[in-house]
Amino acid sequence: MVLFIPSYGDGGVERNFVYLANGLAHAGYPVTLMTSADRCVFLEQLHPRVDLCRLAGASERELAAELLAFLAGQPPAVVMTGQHRDDCIAMTAKRQLDRGGHRFFISVGTPLSQQARESHPFWPKRWWYRRRLRALFSRCDGLIANAQGVARDLTTFLGVAPSRIAVAPNPAVPPDILTRAAAPVDHPWLSDTAIPVVMAAGRLSRVKDFPTLLEAFARLRAMRRCRLMILGQGRQRRKLERLARTLGVASDVEFTGFVDNPYAYLARASVFVVSSLREGGPNVLIEALACGTPVVATDCPYGPREILESGRWGALVPVGDAPALAEAIDAALRDPLPGAALKRAAERYSVEQSTRSYLQAFGLMPLSNPAVPAADTARPNWVANAGGAVR
């Protein structure tokens, strides 16, 4: 089994691929993760049963040739991608492969109709984008959506037949999450239980709509003493810092940047907030639930409503509505749901259960069914390059 992600960064897709690779390996399948990235925090979490193939190519053509060379020497395999550029590369390789039984799947983690409207506001470009996506997806053997709403969007926006789409939840909850959540955090705000900490996390980009969160926090801060921590990095950081100063709350807002162990932060938050304009299946919302932390989210397309079961496990508020968001956060601080119930709500997103869903989407069954242990801290197995031999 091959997870192909040369466009490797530090986001949710990359974490999902690492956790899924571990889950597939423990289900009894040989797994290779192919990436251009050097070692980073997510890759170090790979279990030693997973082979890590370092791609050397820079261009899409070179990367496609490497994938092609790798697959040519392998028995029939499932290949899955999760980023648009990587999807294109894999479909180029698929087109050049002789018939060998290899099957290619594309995972989709966001509502593409919403993404198209944001990226291409003028209809001619949006029409062309939609046409290219339809052509790309028609060449793969199947699509895997991380939420029912994302699957419906693929059908309504691109006309993909429902029979070609499987739904598999993100493998967002690793088996050792509570152990990692209990790790110490050296931050004075998180040790001062007298002042509640509102927390958010994610790439500092427009789609996460952190300006609305800052405006909501300013309203909340006018009513009660509290603090706001936003985990993550991105190009909007300076803009958001300026807005915090303009709103008069900069002294109670901290942008932490990237953190190696977000679970330890999430577990110590008083309430966790997702303020996004759109989400497929936001991992961090699931992770907060798994840590027993109360949550609030915008009712954006489409993941939060599905994860929170229409508000059962956390309030859903209209997108871009700062007053409603402030009110919901205040209510969660005053009357939080029991942590044990929130943890149970996240169980369906465990690595083990998600792996079963992916195997079903691939038309496969687990070869073995042990409980998935925590990732070994030993360095993963490295294949020198795509043409090298696999362990």
CATH superfamily of the largest domain: Glycogen Phosphorylase B
Beta percentage is: 15-25%
What's the helix-strand series?
EHEEHEHEHHEHEHHEHEHEHEHEHEHHHE
Overall radius of gyration:
21 Å
Distance between the termini: 13 Å
Total helices: the number is: 16
**What helical percentage do the residues reach?**
40-55%
Number of separate domains: 2
Q: Give a short account of the largest sheet.
A: 8 strands, parallel
Poorly predicted runs of 5 or more residues: 370-380, 387-391
Q: Give the overall form.
A: globular
Do you know the CATH architecture of the largest domain?
Answer: 3-Layer(aba) Sandwich
Task: Tell me the structural class.
Answer: alpha/beta
The CATH first-level class of the largest domain comes to Alpha Beta
SSE order and pairing:
Layout: E1 2-4, H1 12-26, E2 31-35, E3 50-54, H2 60-72, E4 78-81, H3 84-96, E5 103-108, H4 112-119, H5 123-138, E6 142-145, H6 148-158, E7 165-167, H7 177-181, H8 188-191, E8 197-201, H9 210-223, E9 227-231, H10 237-246, E10 253-257, H11 262-266, E11 271-274, H12 283-290, E12 295-298, H13 303-307, E13 315-317, H14 322-334, H15 339-345, H16 351-362, E14 381-383
Parallel strand pairs: 1-2, 1-4, 2-3, 3-14, 4-5, 5-6, 6-7, 8-9, 8-11, 9-10, 11-12, 12-13
Helix pairs in contact: 1-16, 2-3, 9-14
